[in-house]
Write a structure and sequence with these properties.
132 residues, alpha+beta, 5-stranded mixed β-sheet, 4 helices, 5 strands, globular
């Protein structure tokens, strides 16, 4: 059974390692070389500053990281556990936090391969597609 909870600061390193593991196993999510480098630089510079939810079974299976203004920065699930409801569970827990804090808007900037995942969670595209 999956348990979802907020991560403590000393668990963030494990979360960032999970993100890198999935990122590399998914072929850098189709990012260009420069895009992949930029993503990894973001993890190094900002990764520890985010808030995290973690999904645990025997080990950490997935994470959702967000900023204080409820912008989703990272949503990653171990490759072998994808499409098992872990991302949905993380997002539902995130929604509970947002509701408890009376947040009226949740945002995300999604990589192209992740757009269907966010659409399945109820997100709608807003604005023009950009690449940077």
């Amino acid at each position: 059974m999956i348990a979802i909870r907020s991560l403590e600061q000393n668990e963030v390193y494990d979360a960032l390692n999970l993100v890198k593991e999935v990122f590399f196993s998914e072929g850098n999510l189709g990012y260009s070389r420069q895009g992949a480098q930029s993503f990894l630089e973001f993890l190094s510079a900002k990764g520890e500053l985010l808030e995290y939810l973690g999904a645990y079974d025997a080990a950490l299976e997935g994470i959702l990281a967000y900023t204080e203004d409820f912008h989703i920065a990272l949503l990653f699930v171990r490759k072998e556990r994808q499409k098992t409801g872990i991302a949905k569970g993380l997002f539902q827990e995130f929604l509970k936090l947002a509701k408890a804090r009376a947040v009226s808007r949740i945002t995300v900037n999604a990589a192209k391969p992740a757009v269907p995942v966010y659409e399945a969670l109820g997100f709608e595209a807003y604005g023009e597609e950009t690449t940077k």
